[in-house]
Design brief:
Shape of chain A: elongated
Number of domains of chain A: 5
CATH class of the largest domain in chain A: Alpha Beta
Radius of gyration of chain B: 43 Å
Strand content of chain B: 15-25%
Number of helices of chain A: 20
CATH architecture of the largest domain in chain A: 2-Layer Sandwich
Distance between the termini of chain B: 86 Å
Oligomer: heterodimer
Number of strands of chain B: 9
Largest sheet of chain A: 7 strands, mixed
Shape of chain B: rod-shaped
CATH superfamily of the largest domain in chain A: Bira Bifunctional Protein, Domain 2
Structural class of chain A: alpha+beta
Largest interface: A-B, 97 and 85 residues
Strand content of chain A: 25-35%
CATH topology of the largest domain in chain B: BirA Bifunctional Protein, domain 2
Number of helices of chain B: 12
């Protein structure tokens, strides 16, 4: 809301600078977001919160200024002239709920001409273009009182009557901005005998607009239903100063005050300069209130036009604020804000809420008003009533959150960088994975780029990798821990971990490190799971649509066939090409929600073995189909508890290895928990191991 | 005669010491040793001539010459040690200015870090960290929070709607309702998480961002306790000297409501670009829980009172780290990530 400082001074005595007024308004809840000079005036931009519709006018702001600076308010009092009853038109309201009050007034013998300089100046300071005296007066009153008004050229109203009705299906109107609008039954219109002449509360029609030739008008001041105006404005994509105020709710009393003020100004400013009668002829105020709304409300919800009474217990103010505020202060504060005290006792007062404060209906609302004037900054700081209680003293963090944080710490200590990608992705990006997913779709997306909820973290991971590659960041070890969403009514959200590595490891002058491979990723996953206390997992050979066939694995719990809790592998070339990635990428995805119950974060000490260990190596040539896990398990079976560690330290191919085979070298650590092993004992055991490998794997042990 | 002898000794000593000082390698050392102490060495020659000195002066002369011999031997030995040590050092010396071998650490995302830091401050005050769904219903995101259908304040909460009739929460406040429905007061919780709003993305707006919501409900809780709690938070987060001010504001789910500004952490309140020359930065919304919210969860508002607050995590992280574009958080350039 733009507010002219000079105009404000017409209604309240301001003895302070615009800057200090702005500070006071801000600290009373009307935040001044900017101040600009406009000729000799200062224009304040005030952020009016949606509850304070009463502050969408100069007088509304003036009321606040008067209350917070403790000055008298000077509102122009319009004298209600009786008007000529012969000057009247029939007004019929068909939609009583959507139009609760309609004031019409016929005004004749006017001369349409440019407004006087002072009026033009006021409007221009507020950013509104001057048109002619009649239109300018309606705009002036809208800004002054917050009541939208409209003037029809009376001679252009067919049948000289007003019908407030829903539009017919496929009816049309050309609004004063020159655009044709298609209407339907949800739109309330102001019509004459023939057709709609205005979209109620939003904009008038071009064909009944006031022009230079107009001599008679019908002035309209009404109270339209806020929600209907809101919906119509959205539906037509048409907003105006009028709709802005109607959809927030106007002041019931302002409907007549606004009209009277306009009539008074028209009398003065539209007086004909020639002709027989030099007097503007004013008709009788036609005030239609289709729904009787007088007296006190029976139900809790207060209908427009009713006067609301609210009780405030003094004790409740202190209880809510934590500071004593005297009854005298409370009464004075409410009086300054124009609440009338209708009943008082030792403990409480009851006040009548002014009609413009449609946001006040409860004790809590009055407490806020008192607090606002008292000053939030004058309330002391305290922690007195925040003592921890037994139920919240322990377990302050969710166990899942503690686990997720542990996962992040472990991965960061392994050199991975946590990324954060958007939960909303494009259909097209998901399609690049080449895997089928059922997804949840956004009905009102900002763009196709953010149309669906991600069912997997893979898209975000691959997008982050390509962003980095394009910026010549070549060593990438990334992870994301976040939610994914599936089309399932029970549990559509679950937390996943995605790890992605790509590119070259950092070389240094001592060592050339080469490129990442599957086993770098596998090592990260193994370290992570073990550090989380999960030991009973296995890598099972399995193909996935996104991975190179034969270079991927499912992660399963040992001894359980059914549920994989994750997968990892080398991303397929076709998939990488769709993401414009030209380097190998290895990705792992873990369903953390499936892991939570298995995680053992409590540590148990295992006694250290005091006896020396002996190491022996074994090299063997095995057919390709024999895998490392089989070999290790044979070694463990033979050596039993005396084998404490088996390490693969070499894999080789070459001339001496037949094709279809490979050479593998293991180092085995033998040790007993109970005694020192002798060399002969170990040699004997190691020989058994070699023989077993030979026999069971048809391998050639060297 | 003796005088002559003494002069000779002194001359040899002076010359020899100077020369020893100049030795830089083993070869020179051996040559010098031969020159003075070798079979035909200068000092050896001199010692040989001692018997020719008159008896009266002979002991004195012998003593001085022998003293010099021992002295030269010792000087040569220590020179030798010095040369040896120097050579050994040269053999072992490395260029310590060569770069160290790095085992690079990874990093935790700045938004995660900020969220954890904020949660930790409230945990220290006895608040429990909870979470809730991102896919929400209209009831939890709006109605239960005193934002009925058609209420103009719904306009300020732009929301993404889903094809399954649900929506993406536009605030973390629904977690308040879910916790209060399940638990009896008193309670103190904070709920960090993602929220979504269909706002066009620019340097300071993102359609996805993070919030932290707080709620405390007890019998005697007051606005003063809200101020105390947030003042602890502000000082822990932004430094002890940070100022804080409460401005009246409007939120449907609190009454009275406030927006909280802190003194600009860049200019300390004197006015700069970051605070739009106001000296203050808005970082929090808060207030006492609205009675309508309590009635939605069937808490008796005559008996219980509560305060609630909410803040944007990215905004706080941007202020704290001096980040000027919110999009950097979601671009995931490792040069950015590695700074945290």
């Amino acid at each position: 809301m733009r507010v002219s400082f000079n105009w404000l001074k017409d209604y309240v005595d301001i003895r302070i600078s615009p800057q200090s007024l702005a500070d006071k308004l801000t600290m009373a809840g009307l935040e001044v977001t900017s101040m600009t000079k406009h000729e000799a005036d200062t224009i304040m931009e005030i952020e009016v919160t949606p509850n304070r519709t009463d502050c969408l006018s100069i007088i509304g702001i003036a009321r606040e200024v008067a209350a917070i600076t403790d000055k008298k308010l000077k509102i122009p009092k319009s004298t209600s002239s009786r008007g000529r009853s012969v000057l009247s038109v029939p007004i019929q309201i068909q939609e009583k709920d959507l139009c609760r009050r309609y004031i019409g007034c016929v005004i004749k013998n006017i001369e349409v001409r440019p407004s006087p300089a002072w009026l033009i100046q006021r409007l221009e300071a507020m950013g509104i273009r001057a048109v002619n005296n009649i239109v300018d007066i309606t705009n002036f009153c809208l800004l002054e009182f917050g009541q939208p008004l409209h003037a029809f050229d009376l001679d252009k109203l067919e049948g000289r009557r007003i019908i407030v009705r829903p539009a017919e299906e496929s009816e049309q109107i050309v609004t004063i901005d020159g655009l044709q609008r298609n209407l339907d039954r949800s739109v309330l219109v102001i019509a004459d005998k023939a057709s709609p002449r205005a979209i109620a509360g939003i904009m008038g029609g071009k064909n009944s607009e006031v022009s230079e030739t107009t001599t008679s008008i019908l002035l309209e001041s009404a109270f339209f239903d806020a929600l209907n105006i809101h919906n119509t404005s959205r539906k037509l994509g048409l907003a105006s100063q009028s709709s802005y105020r109607f959809e927030r709710g106007v002041d019931w009393a302002g409907v007549s005050e606004g009209a009277l003020r306009a009539i008074e100004l028209i009398k003065k400013l539209a007086r004909p300069s020639k002709g027989r009668s030099r007097k503007v002829l004013i008709g009788k105020l036609i005030d239609k209130r289709p729904v009787a709304a007088r007296g006190r409300a029976k139900t809790k919800a207060v209908k427009p036009g009713q006067i609301n009474k609210v009780r405030l217990r003094y004790a409740k103010v202190a209880e809510a604020l934590g500071v004593e505020i005297s009854p005298a202060y409370i009464k004075e504060a409410l009086r300054k804000l124009q609440f009338a005290i209708v009943r008082r006792s030792k403990e409480a007062i009851t006040v009548a809420v002014p009609s413009f404060r449609n946001d006040i209906s409860r004790e809590a609302d009055l407490i806020e008003e008192v607090t606002r004037l008292y000053g939030y900054d004058n309330i002391p700081l305290s922690l007195a009533r925040l003592a921890p209680n037994l139920s919240s003293a322990g377990g302050l963090e969710l166990t899942s959150e503690t686990t997720y944080n542990a996962v992040r710490e472990i991965l960061a200590s392994l050199g991975l960088n946590e990324i954060m990608t958007y939960s909303l992705i494009s259909r097209q990006a998901l399609r690049k994975l080449g895997a089928p997913y059922e997804t949840l779709t956004i009905k009102n997306p900002l763009s196709y780029e953010q149309e669906i909820l991600r069912p997997s973290l893979l898209v975000g991971m691959l997008n982050s990798i390509v962003t980095n590659i394009n910026r010549k960041n070549t060593n990438l070890k990334l992870f994301e821990l976040s939610r994914v969403y599936i089309k399932e009514s029970g549990r559509p959200e679950s937390t996943e971990l995605c790890i992605g590595i790509a590119g070259k490891k950092d070389d240094n002058w001592m060592k050339k490190s080469g490129e990442y491979c599957f086993f770098d990723l596998k090592g990260i996953v193994e370290t992570l799971l073990r550090k989380l206390g999960i030991e009973d997992f296995r890598f099972a050979e399995e193909d996935f649509p996104v991975f190179v066939s034969g270079r991927s694995s499912a992660l399963v719990f040992s001894g359980e066939k059914s549920s994989a809790f994750g997968f990892l592998g080398e991303v397929k070339k076709e998939v990488l090409e769709r993401f414009d990635i030209n380097t190998a990428v290895y990705v792992c995805s873990l369903q953390l929600s499936k892991l939570l119950s298995r995680i053992r974060r409590e540590k148990r000490f295992v006694p250290l073995v005091r006896f020396p260990s002996i190491e022996r190596d074994v090299s063997l040539i095995v057919p390709q189909e024999v895998n490392a896990e089989q070999i290790v398990s044979i070694i463990n079976n033979i050596g039993r508890e005396l084998v404490t560690k088996v390490t693969l330290f070499d894999q080789y191919f070459g001339e001496q290895i037949p094709s279809g085979s490979r050479g593998l070298s293991f180092s085995i650590k033998y040790c007993s928990k109970e005694r020192t092993l002798t060399a002969q004992e170990v040699d004997k055991l190691h020989l058994e191991v070699r023989q077993a490998l030979n026999k069971e794997l048809k391998s050639q042990v060297r | 005669m003796y005088k002559n002898m003494r002069k000779k000794i002194e001359k040899i000593e002076k010359e020899a010491l100077i020369q020893i000082e100049k030795i830089v390698n083993e070869e020179e050392l051996q040559n010098l040793k031969a020159k003075y102490l070798g079979r035909k060495g200068l000092l050896t020659q001199l010692l040989k001539s001692i018997p020719k000195v008159p008896l009266k002066y002979r002991p004195e002369a012998g003593k001085s010459a022998n003293l010099l011999k021992r002295k030269l031997e010792q000087e040569l030995r220590s020179r030798h040690d010095l040369l040896r040590k120097k050579k050994e050092k040269e053999r072992l010396k490395i260029d310590i200015t060569m770069p160290g071998i790095h085992q690079e650490l990874g990093s935790i995302h700045p938004v995660t870090q900020t969220m954890r830091q904020i949660s930790q401050i409230f945990m220290n005050l006895g608040f429990k960290v909870v979470d809730g769904p991102e896919i929400e219903t209209d009831y939890y995101n709006f109605t239960a929070l005193n934002i009925p259908e058609g209420h103009p304040s719904r306009e300020t909460f732009h929301t993404f709607y889903l094809d399954n009739g649900k929506l993406l929460r536009s605030q973390t406040s629904p977690v308040q309702i879910r916790v209060m429905e399940k638990e009896k007061p008193p309670l103190k919780i904070v709920a960090p998480g993602k929220v979504f709003r269909p706002d066009a993305t620019d340097a300071s707006h993102s359609f996805m961002f993070h919030q932290i919501e707080g709620l405390a409900v007890d019998k005697n809780i007051t606005f003063a306790d809200l101020k105390g709690t947030l003042s602890v938070f502000v000082r822990e987060m932004f430094g002890q000297e940070t100022q804080m001010r409460f401005r009246p504001h409007f939120f449907p789910f609190t009454e009275p409501s406030a927006e909280i500004d802190i003194s600009c952490i860049i200019c300390a309140g004197s006015g700069c670009r970051v605070c739009s020359f106001k000296g203050w930065l808005e970082i929090l919304g808060a207030g006492l829980v609205d009675p309508n919210v309590f009635s939605a969860v069937k808490y008796d508002s005559e008996l219980w009172r509560g305060f609630a607050f909410g803040m944007g995590v990215e905004r706080i992280a941007m202020l704290k780290y001096g980040i000027t574009d919110i999009r950097l958080f979601f671009e995931n350039d490792v040069r950015f990530l590695k700074q945290f």
